Amino acid sequence: MRGRIDRIDLGNVDGQRAFNVIDYKLSKASCFTLDDLERGVALQLVVYACAARRLGLIDGDLFQIGFWVLKEDGFCCGLKQRGKKVSRIEPEVASTMEAALDRVLPQLAESIRSGYFPIVPEDDDERYNPDFKAVARTSQFRSVADVLEKTIR
Q1: Residue 22 near residue 44 (C-beta atoms within 8 A)
Q2: ∠ at Cα 31 (15, 49), nearest 5°?
Q3: Burial of 138 (C-beta count, 10 Å sphere; 0-12/13-18/19+)
Q4: Most CB within 10 Å of its CB: which of 82, 90, 92, 137?
Q5: In whole numbers, what is the pLDDT of the chain averaged over residues?
Q6: What pTM was computed for the model?
Q7: pLDDT tens figures, 67-90
């Protein structure tokens, strides 16, 4: 696993040092939930925030993680929030995210080492570009899974 943190902003909030982790996107960015993190489908921003803190790159608490969408309205919170106003990620939530990451990453690494790559698309109507039909065979997978009653939900 590797990546590059695009941006870390440092500042003060209520007299306390705080930081934001921001990833630039050329196209759309979507918010994620804690459940998405637990399922291992939204790791990037949390990995970056955790790495920045654990490696000592920053001195402060996490304020926010998000995407800066260059072709749209700018900043968008990574972790889904209520309302439009950007607010601080509560310290308990930040701790929960780090703990989830500590559980999920070893599980994913073990699955990869074992050659386990399940085809479990989020959307039952998910369609793939026909150019990739040889490698993205969800329709065949679904029909076999349904017959064998091996669906995951």
Answers
A1: no
A2: 45
A3: middle
A4: 137
A5: 83
A6: 0.76
A7: 999 888 788 999 998 877 888 999
